[in-house]
Write a structure and sequence with these properties.
304 residues; alpha/beta; Arc Repressor Mutant, subunit A; D-Maltodextrin-Binding Protein, domain 2; five-stranded mixed beta sheet; 9 helices; 38% helix
Length: 304
């Protein structure tokens, strides 16, 4: 009795991620004819047409192919977990780990992973995808990512989560601002001053909500899409801003100017950075270890 291989399943499950067979073959580091032959052999083995291949028009899975792909991903995950469990018996973590990370705090999250975690577990093959929640969470739901790091503000019941560190929105001021020495700051005391808005998702909506709750209309002078640019502009004295606190955050801007961050009075934007994975999925040992590593590295540094 003939049977398919795990490699054939991996190749087939990769097809929907690419616009054409040629693109899929290039990403898989093989020839287009080799990939086509592997899929043909898989179809011959299972006795079904799994996809429709049209030159330069991409690959379309048939209903049987969609059913097969969904179950093939489960088989691949189970096989991967089996290898991981055997490695765990030897005290090792082995295998791929696909991580999604919200772009806004990637400079905080990724260094401890790509340095500390990767050094401690060299046999884990880490892949990283950064983006907004709208980009990262669908990839997580579809099984293209193992775990994602994001804020807990807008999560649905579709996800499990584990806290990495607590955070809140703070006021960012130039070092020599008259209120820089305050323990906490009321937004009303800044209402007449120029405001610099970080225009990213979900930061901008969260910031506007805070102003609305205070009944303050900000004097928005600049709207910029980059966090470090916000800090540089504040450091130059062009206005103040509101940003989420994060561990190990330097108060020196890229230009060498200094800024200060102070809590709002009353507090606002209290939330947490969390690791999330689909409710229907089981967190792998590799992902579990990564989240524990991040919590250890970043979770003890809460000094707003």
């Amino acid at each position: 009795m003939s049977s398919f291989t795990l490699r054939q399943l991996e190749l087939f499950c990769a097809l929907p991620d690419h616009p054409t067979l040629g693109a899929a073959a290039a990403a898989l580091h093989m020839s287009e004819s080799g990939l086509s032959h592997a899929i043909t052999e898989l179809e011959r083995t299972v006795g079904e047409q799994l996809c429709v291949r049209r030159k330069a028009r991409g690959v379309q899975l048939t209903p049987a192919g969609q059913f097969f792909a969904a179950h093939a991903k489960t088989l691949l995950a189970d096989a991967d977990e089996l290898v991981s469990r055997l490695a765990a018996e030897r005290g090792e973590l082995v295998g791929p780990l696909k991580l999604g990370c919200y772009t806004g705090f990637s400079t905080t999250i990724l260094p401890p992973i790509l340095d500390g975690f990767a050094t401690a577990h060299p046999k884990v093959d880490i892949g990283v995808h950064t983006g907004t929640d709208d980009e990262v969470l669908p990839l997580l739901q579809s099984g293209q990512l193992d775990v994602a790091i994001t804020y807990d503000m807008s999560l649905t019941d579709d996800f499990h989560s584990r806290r990495i560190y607590a955070t809140e929105v703070l006021v960012v001021l130039p070092e020599l601002h008259p209120l820089a020495g305050s323990e906490a700051i009321d937004l009303n005391d800044l209402a007449s001053e120029p405001f610099i808005l970080l225009d990213t998702t979900p930061s901008a909506a969260n910031t506007r909500r805070i102003f609305d709750e205070r009944g303050v209309v900000p004097q928005t002078k600049l709207v910029v899409p980059n966090l470090e640019l916000v800090r540089v502009l504040v450091g130059r004295g062009l206005g103040y801003s509101l940003l989420m606190w994060r561990p190990n955050y330097s108060m020196t801007t890229l230009e060498g100017q200094s800024v200060v961050m102070r809590p709002l009075l009353p507090q606002a934007g209290v939330s947490a950075v969390v690791g999330v994975w689909p409710r229907h999925a089981t967190l792998s040992r590799r992902a579990d270890a990564l989240l524990s590593h991040l919590a250890d590295e970043l979770g003890e540094a809460n000094t707003f």
